[in-house]
Amino acid sequence: MTAITHSELSAATWRTVSLATLATWLGGSFVLDAVLMPTLSSAGMMTQPGFASAGYSLFWVFNHLEMLCAALILTSLLVMQNAGSRLARWVIPAALGLLAITMIDTYSLTPLMSALGLQLDFFASATPMPAEMNQLHAGYWLLEVLKFALGSAVLISSYRSIGNKSDLA
């Protein structure tokens, strides 16, 4: 903690880190959720027998990048607060919520959804999607909406606080 407390980087630099990370993360999530997955679904790739393992590989990488982004955002906000920046009281809990969402996605939803979608009978032509998968998809989309809401709120709050004179040191 001493290294971060006595860092040469100013609060303005850490704000830039948090803004850039949030914007990149939310943009990447939007592309994945609104472009890539619907395209794969409309192309019929989600009905292919090997899609569960390919999807798991894709989401494994993306979820771990999301955790890295959430941790970097939380770190930058904590450093800014420690440096004397005036942050809204809800910003740190919101960043903790973002980290919690990424951990739920990474360690709970993605493995469960991949396990349900994995086809173990290689001789069967096609198996219908299990009913539990719809519940997991609903949970995933609920977490995604919450992630976009929290991330956008933190992004807007951080952007609006740019003009604070105490943050320029």
From TrEMBL:
It comes from the Bacteria. Its main location: membrane. Keywords: Membrane, Transmembrane, Transmembrane helix. The keyword Cell inner membrane does not apply. Pfam families: DUF4149. It is found in: Membrane. InterPro entries: TMEM205-like. One of its GO terms (cellular component) is membrane. Residues 22-116 form the TMEM205-like domain. The chain crosses the membrane at residues 12-37, 57-79, 91-118, 138-156. This is DUF4149 domain-containing protein. It comes from Pegethrix bostrychoides GSE-TBD4-15B.
